[in-house]
Amino acid sequence: METHLRKRLDIIVEAPLQRRVTEVLEAKGVRGYTVLRCLAGKGHGGVWQEGEISSAGAMRMIVSIMPETQARQVLEELQSLLGDYAAIATLSDVEVLRGEHF
Predict the structure, then answer these.
(1) Burial level of 88, CB count in 10 A (0-12/13-18/19+)?
(2) Which residue from 33, 38, 45, 78 could staple onto 64, CB 3.0 to 4.6 Å apart?
(3) Of 48 and 3, which is predicted with more confidence?
(4) Rounded CA gap, 73 and 25, in Å?
(5) Do 74 and 63 form a contact (C-beta atoms < 8 A)?
(6) How far is CA 3 from CA 9, 66, 97, 99, 100, in A?
(7) CB neighbours (10 Å) of residue 6?
(8) Which residues have a Cβ under 8 Å from the Cβ of 42 and sit 6 or more positions away?
(9) What pLDDT is stored for residue 74 in this prediction?
(10) Contact present, 90 and 78 (Cβ < 8 Å)
(11) Of 45, 33, 28, 36, nearest to 9 (Cα)?
């Protein structure tokens, strides 16, 4: 079985920033991403939970896989965008089966 090395970029942001983050991904030529709804968590600012009545406190996780060079360019662009918001960005190594998809 042949695999291909890529980078996985996970970005957790306040829901209102989701569109701006995905616009950066698209502008940098990222071929795909998945947006997941976050239900609750705990971090630097304490415990949080998405509101059951409103979307107050709503968070989203945006997951994408891409070549390393592209991932570094995206992170550089996102650094200034995410600076003042509740946000986390992580970059990790992954192996994929169909390298041409990423």
Answers:
(1) middle
(2) 33
(3) 3
(4) 10
(5) no
(6) 18, 14, 5, 7, 11
(7) 21
(8) 48
(9) 97
(10) no
(11) 33
